[in-house]
Design a protein that fits this description.
The chain is of the alpha+beta class. It is about 55% helix and about 5% strand. A five-stranded mixed beta sheet has the order 12-15-16-17-18, with helices on both faces. The chain has a three-stranded antiparallel beta sheet with strand order 2-3-5, with no helix packed on it. Strands 1-4 form a two-stranded antiparallel sheet. Helix 28 (about 720-735) links the parallel strand 16 (about 705-710) and strand 17. It is built from 30 helices and 18 strands. Helix 5 (about 100-125) runs antiparallel to helix 17, helix 25 packs across helix 26 (about 665-675) and helix 26 packs across helix 27 (about 680-700). The radius of gyration is 40 Å and the shape is elongated.
């Protein structure tokens, strides 16, 4: 039901208008009714009527309260601090046995998936596969202890491994033979060269042994560089967590993260293509701008040298794994959310074929994993910490990206299952998972979408899943590792490429994103293309820059319109969007749907002038020029009169001008005043006509409206620079005779405006609680100015004003 208002005479209480209305019900889509009778409040009246609390908590009081809370040394406080840093102490004692079955099934399922993925992602990180197994073991145990999430699965992750690969390629040189045409190349270590010379039947250089030792040293350097970077990543994340800087990831909007991860997927794919064709030894390492193009050019050039055996392995593994994973997703419910471990099965099959078929030997020459040591690595400090000053920018990017991806996954599953997480503790936990394993030959980790989804769907309820999956990984590390030595690297590359499916599927979101926000669409696409063409570091910088530029653009150009009133309501809307909305005669209601600061103060001023259709600066200049011309003409006539009096001795009151025209009544009055004569009643009437003439002259430069209402309801904040601009605009319109009112401003906004000088031009009685209150006041004040009465009610109910029943007869 809607209510059609029946106008009643407004009640004036204490000089204020009381908004009052009766309602008559008519059929509508809603049975809800609104019936309110209240005064039209300005800021002063509202504060007096409702006893505003003026007590303000000072910064000193806030600091004292915070310090008192932080220095509380009660046992409860100490226990809460301990549990805050080590959450497992809070939930493990309360663990429910009914969760054990689901956690056990989920743990075994995730553990089986970790084995092939760990080896495959180590290949992506450009280190030996065993280090991928370490990175799927040590961080997972630490994650169990320190995380507040119940479902996130930590470990190797494609985008992070790609960034580690770039660091390794940047700081680890390629291995090459020291001989060129039988001569030692310049810069080669002669003493090192001597070790590989045999002096049997002549001097012979053992190039095979030399290259094997150099490759072994190179592999050791690779993991040391990766561990060094991981240690720095962990330190950065722990520092950010301790200083509660997790909010910095808010700088990475969803379009930036999605565009970045999708662009990175192209680099991951490109890095694995060479393994599919058996060209990993022929293709150089490229990084930086256009590295992806250079890599594909190199691959095309070397295609004639592709290994047929590895191509066959790739062609068998790729469709098999893809089809089985497709059916895993399609029949997930029928399989009770436990996917068939096709990756592990295929690894077992191709490993068996490689072992029994001796595929790593001629004529097949398949590139296999080779040596996987048993046992756990020794604790050692990474060797290349002196490179931190060079790799700090890359490590900061890895820190923020890995945490942003992990936190987004954590929030998704926390919201789904209805529990709270601590973002800063998650940052601290991720830092620990990178810091300590860096001393155990591991590389940087992050949350994995695929494993997290499997962990949750397989029935995992707590992070006990991490411990159970780690038990399976420990068995592999202690006893089963050597069984995976014959695994072809092409099979691991297939596993990585298929795992990128979810990242490439993000392209499907572009259509919906275009419909929602074209600016976000541009951010997504720009970030993705920049990452693909310029690399992950420069691409991310471009994406963040575009996002910040878009934010500034949004701040600069929010909605800026004139509002109109919906008839018989207190609602004000855009007349272009709601045809029923009508502008109040003589009143302009300016709506600016954004906060004001130094970046958009000029845009705000331009918007006000453009929407209102007048520039008060120009109008004031014209008005002042006209006034100067008027006074100059008057003074010129007075000078000529005085000169004639001196010559003729006449009183000059009726002296004609140079053209013989008699003086006007206004000139007679001016001459009397200048001579010190008294002004008669007739002269006063002439003075009145002169004032009217002056007012008419001023009216020529006045806007077409008598009141400007500034709707500040969407101003969440305003800084001092923008506040001074607002005060300047208010003063200029007031100088033109326009009544300026402010509506719906928050106390913080008003405080800043008053501090910037607004109270010198606008008292608080011109600040209103709502736009409707301001319009009620504007109509009443204008009526008083025109009629000269306190309040004069139109007996016809203001029927002569289109769609306007009289604001002072309206209620909410």
């Amino acid at each position: 039901m809607i209510s059609t208002p029946q106008p009643q005479l407004p009640n004036i209480v204490g000089g204020e208008i009381t908004i009052n209305i009766a309602f008559v019900h008519q059929p509508s889509k809603s049975d809800a009714n609104v019936n309110v009778t209240r005064p039209a409040y300005n800021e002063v009246g509202f504060n007096e009527a409702h006893a505003k609390n003026e007590d303000v908590i000072t910064v000193k009081q806030k600091a004292s309260k915070w310090l008192s809370k932080q220095t509380d040394c009660s046992l409860t406080r100490i226990w809460l601090i301990i549990v805050g840093f080590i959450p497992v102490l809070g939930w493990l004692p309360r663990y429910k046995l009914r969760y054990l079955t689901g956690d056990a099934i989920s743990g075994m399922t995730v553990g089986i998936i970790r084995i092939p993925q760990g080896m495959a992602y180590a290949l992506l990180a450009n280190v030996q596969p065993v280090y991928g197994l370490y990175s799927c073991f040590f961080p997972v145990l630490l994650w169990f202890v320190f995380t507040t999430s119940k479902h996130t699965s930590i470990g190797t992750m494609a985008v992070v491994c790609l960034m580690i690969q770039n660091l390794v390629a940047k700081y680890v040189p390629e291995v090459s033979s020291p001989l060129v045409n039988g001569s030692l190349v310049a810069g080669a270590d002669a003493e090192e060269f001597e070790k590989y010379l045999s002096h049997g039947n002549g001097t012979v250089f053992d190039e095979e042994s030399y290259m094997a030792d150099q490759i072994s040293a190179q592999e050791e350097m690779k993991i040391q560089v990766a561990s060094t970077a991981t240690l720095l990543v962990g330190i950065i994340q722990i520092i950010m967590g301790c200083f509660r800087l997790g909010f910095l990831t808010n700088l990475l909007s969803d379009p930036v993260v999605q565009g970045f991860t999708t662009g990175s997927a192209f680099h991951v794919l490109t890095s694995q293509v060479k393994y599919l064709f058996g060209l990993d030894k022929s293709i150089g390492s490229y990084y930086g701008p256009f590295a992806i193009i250079k890599t594909y050019v190199d691959i095309v050039k070397n295609l004639p040298h592709a290994n047929v055996a590895e191509i066959v392995i790739s062609l068998i593994c790729f469709p098999t794994i893809y089809i089985v994973k497709h059916f895993n997703d399609k029949y997930k419910k029928k399989m009770r959310n436990i996917p068939f471990p096709i990756e592990l099965v295929m690894i077992v099959i191709v490993t068996s074929a490689s072992y029994f078929g001796h595929l790593d030997q001629p004529p097949y020459n398949v590139n296999t994993v080779k040596h996987i040591p048993t046992g756990l690595p020794s604790f050692q400090v990474p060797k290349y910490t002196y490179l931190w000053k060079d790799m700090v920018s890359d490590c900061v990017i890895i820190s923020i990206i890995s945490f942003a991806i992990s936190l987004s996954l954590t929030k998704i599953f926390a919201d789904k299952h209805g529990y709270e997480i601590d973002p800063n503790q998650e940052l601290f936990a991720l830092g620990i998972c990178n810091l300590i394993p860096a001393f155990l030959s591991s590389f940087a980790v992050a949350a994995s979408l695929s494993r997290t989804a499997i962990q949750e769907s397989a029935g995992g309820n707590t992070q006990l899943v991490s411990v159970l999956s780690s038990i399976l990984m420990l068995i592999v590390l202690l006893w089963l590792g050597p069984l995976f030595e014959p695994v072809p690297k092409s099979a691991l590359a297939v596993i990585i490429i298929i795992a990128l499916k979810n990242l490439f599927l993000q392209f499907e979101k572009l259509k919906a994103l275009w419909a929602v926000s074209k600016l976000d669409f541009v951010i997504w696409l720009t970030t993705c293309l920049a990452v693909v063409l310029l690399g992950v570091d420069y691409g991310l910088a471009v994406g963040v820059s575009v996002a910040i530029f878009a934010l500034i653009l949004r701040i600069q150009r929010p909605e800026q319109i004139l509002l109109g009133r919906i008839p018989y309501t207190d609602l004000y809307e855009n007349p272009k969007r709601y045809p029923d909305a009508q502008e109040v005669p003589g009143v302009k209601i300016f709506h600016y749907a954004g906060s004001l600061c130094f970046t958009n103060k000029e845009a705000f001023k331009e918007a006000v002038f453009k929407v209102l259709g007048c520039n008060p600066v120009v109008l004031l200049a014209k008005k002042q020029k006209a006034e100067r011309n008027y006074h100059r003409d008057v003074q010129s006539k007075d000078g000529r009169v005085n000169e004639a009096i001196d010559k003729t001795g006449d009183d000059g009151l009726t002296l004609a001008d140079d053209n013989g025209n008699p003086p006007t009544p206004e000139e007679v009055r001016v001459r009397k005043r200048n001579r010190g004569g008294s002004v008669t009643v007739e002269d006063s009437s002439v003075s009145s006509s002169e004032d009217s003439l002056s007012k008419k002259n001023s009216a020529d430069y006045a806007p077409e409206f008598h009141t400007l209402v500034v709707d500040a309801s969407k101003w969440s904040f305003i800084d001092s620079t923008a506040a001074r601009e607002v005060v300047s605009i208010v003063s200029k319109f007031q100088a033109l005779g326009v009544r300026v009112l402010l509506a719906s401003a928050t106390s913080h906004v008003l405080h800043t405006l008053d501090g910037s000088g607004l109270n010198q031009f606008m008292l608080r009685d011109k600040v209103f609680v709502t736009v409707h209150d301001a319009c009620v006041y504007a109509e009443r004040a204008q009526r008083m100015a025109v009629t000269g009465s306190a309040l004069e009610i139109d007996p016809e109910g203001y029927s002569h004003l289109p769609g306007y029943p009289g604001f002072d007869a309206l209620a909410l």
